[in-house]
Design goal:
The protein is an all-beta fold. The chain has 2 domains: about 90 residues, Thrombin, subunit H, CATH 2.40.10.10; about 120 residues, Thrombin, subunit H. The protein has 1 helix and 13 strands, in the order βββββββββαββββ. The strands form 2 sheets. Strands 8-9-10-13-12-11 form a 6-stranded antiparallel beta barrel. The protein has a 6-stranded antiparallel β-barrel with strand order 2-3-4-7-6-5. Strand 11 and strand 12 form a beta hairpin. This is Acrosin. It comes from Acanthisitta chloris (rifleman). It holds the Pfam family Trypsin. One of its GO terms (molecular function) is serine-type endopeptidase activity.
Length: about 240
């Protein structure tokens, strides 16, 4: 996340780090959101570089990837379900489900995210936030391994396709959300694919998992807000 601040343990209890172990170490590749004790919702793009999930892990309940702490739980990936109509070239239907090999135990550090149903007016939600880690070796002692968060605003998708033409010129696919600020300053970036976009409910203190970080141009650039897969249209598929 660009333009964010570090968070305290437990502040984002539903976020997951999706990691792959290679010859040169274990690396954070993408983020995701726990929506069931055995299922994580993320972006299909995360697995476009490798369909082999044997060496992949999912870390839940962690804030600092260099020091997981006793509250973190690590699971293997048992099954990967990429949306059948995902198109990598356009980013359409950039959504996937990851089944864990064992269910996680919920705690104050690990909780489930809620996908909004049709009754929620997503575009009317005003308090929205993003979170994620930057690309870095998941076990290395270096900055960027502590979870970052930033407040963002939902922007009209048509505006992203028209007024922001210099940035996107129309390729924002259907079932997308546009979030950030026209002036830039806060955005997801490399390593944040699949990261959650959450918005506070207008009637209580709960949060809805409204989006999944999909893509963008020039992280946090002027008139180039982040593009997120909207979860609401996929509720039935999920």
């Amino acid at each position: 996340v660009v333009g964010g601040t570090g968070v305290q343990p437990g502040a984002w209890p539903g976020i997951a780090s999706i990691q792959v172990t290679l010859k040169n170490g274990t690396w954070h590749i993408c983020a995701g959101s726990l929506i069931h004790p055995r299922w994580v919702l993320t972006a299909a793009y995360c697995f476009s570089i490798s369909g082999d999930i044997i060496n992949w892990d999912v870390v839940i309940g962690a804030t600092d990837l260099a020091h997981l702490g006793p509250e973190a739980q690590v699971r293997r990936i048992q099954r990967l379900l990429v949306h059948p109509h995902y198109v990598a070239a356009t980013g359409s239907n950039n959504i996937a489900l990851v089944e864990l090999d064992q269910p996680v135990e919920c705690s104050e550090y690990i909780q489930l995210g809620c996908v909004p149903d049709a009754s929620v007016s997503v575009m009317e939600l005003r308090q929205c936030y993003i979170a994620g880690w930057r690309v870095a070796s998941a076990r290395a002692q270096r900055p960027g391994l502590v979870l970052q968060e930033a407040k963002v605003r939902l922007l009209d998708v048509q505006l992203c396709n028209s007024s922001y033409g210099n940035g996107y010129a129309g390729p924002v696919p259907p079932h997308s959300l546009c979030a950030g600020y026209p002036r830039g300053g806060a955005d997801t970036c490399q390593g944040d694919s699949g990261a959650p976009l959450v918005c506070k409910d207008s009637t209580d203190d709960s949060f809805w998992l409204v989006g999944i970080a999909s893509w963008g141009k020039d992280c946090s650039g002027v008139k180039r807000p982040g593009i997120y897969t909207s979860t609401q249209p996929y509720q039935e598929w999920i």
